[in-house]
Amino acid sequence: MQQVALSHKVGLxxxxxxxxxxxxxxxxxxxxxxxxxVVSLFVNPAQFGERDDLERYPxxxxxxxxxxxxxxxxxxxxxxxxxxxxxxxxxWIDVSAxxxxxxxxxxHFRGVATVCLKLFNIVRPDIxxxxxxDAQQIAVLRQMVHDLNVxxxxxxxxxxxxxxxxxxxxxxxxxxxxERRRALALPRALDAGREADDPVAATRAALNGLEPEYVExxxxxxxxxxxxxxxxxxTRLIDNVLVKGELA
Length: 248
Ligand code: AMP
Fold this sequence. Notes:
The protein is an alpha/beta fold and 248 residues long.
């Protein structure tokens, strides 16, 4: 018989697969803090809008399963769309959020909050791990667990970047070499904006011709982040840097 201590913590890392170093960093953070680590892999149709890239979202479950195993994950949970949204599904979590991704992708956070609450109820983790790259997602989920008395702690894990500064993202695989070079303007501009008197204006000025969807300051608890989104070719990228405080 397996004995489980009272202090036994279950960690959950919700993902949409196509794993990269950012996902692995979340898995490692969960491994370091929790006795059991569950990673969910579900490309959640509810968080994609009409203009979004659900159809071409990269999928490679076999590779993902090897990566999760190498990172010491105990369970890779891969539900089907029918299991998550069975016929007759009719309950949605609508966290109030404004600016940034909330305005740029209407309905996105409704899909995120709904699937995350479902995953929390299925897996029943003590702690759920999310990347700082999606900082507004962390803000939305913290609001949800607070408002709805969900007993899950939301941890933020720093953004993992390539050596040249581009934040790792499953969508980077869509970038051509030339687009990838242009995409570098996003982290560089945020870096330039972070110390400026007017971070938004300084970031806009340093975008090197990249047309942003938005550049905004975002408050998450005590932390202030400088966030931006831009399309490079047909690929939509988001990124942010901390201006003040800590997300953790
Ligand atoms: P996704 O599979 O893209 O939905 O992302 C799953 C989780 O990984 C989310 O919590 C993301 O914030 C996180 N994540 C994505 N990219 C990165 C990154 N470059 N560094 C750290 N975490 C990341």
